[in-house]
Amino acid sequence: LLERRDAGQPALVVFSAHAFTVAPLTSDVSTIALLVGSLSSDIMPSRGSFVEAGIDKAAQLLRQTGLVRGEILLLTDADVSPNSLDIAQALNQEGFVVHVLAVGTADGGPVVEPGGGFLSDQVGQVVIPRLDTEGLQRLANAGGGRFATLTADDRDLDYILSDTPNINGAGSDEDEGELFQ
Fold first, then answer.
1. N or C: which end of the chain has fewer CB within 10 A?
2. 144-172 pLDDT, tens per residue?
3. Hey, which bits of 27-80 come out as E strands?
């Protein structure tokens, strides 16, 4: 994904119940690539997968830089809340696009814990996250972006990165940012 970007400055945000900036907007994609390799769910201080936390953090990064346009690529298996739809729609009205790359399947599967075993809920039941494809598609639509599910080849990225509209007209590369979550 980082190798395929042709303009702008990517950033990296991770989220669970809260969102955290791993790398701010930068032209140094090699540093972001190195940081991705060290990410795992066990480094997060809280559990959960709240899309609105990730999108809101991405919005903060974009707004604080004064960029006039940009794109957010949300990689997630999380459920979509009405609040996250509102945030994506508001971002799109500001000139930012929210794309969604969904990770998972409708049938779901257990989440492997780093030390072995499977993720369980508060009553000891194994958690089987199922992908809400329709909700994530609505999120991409609200954000004016594209939706794809993760594939083993590059079809997902080919679709999301193709024919991306020029948001708010022409602008220089310095006026555009990308956030990968």
1. N
2. 999 999 999 999 999 998 864 433 333 33
3. 69-76
**Of 150, 136, 154, whose CA–CA distance to 98 is shortest?**
136
Q: What is the pTM of this model?
A: 0.82
CA distances from 128 to 102, 104, 109, 116, 120 (A): 16, 11, 5, 16, 9
In angstroms, the CA 39 to CA 134 distance is 28
d(CA 67, CA 77): 28
pLDDT in tens, 124-144: 999 888 899 999 999 999 999
C-alpha span between 116 and 93 (Å, rounded): 44
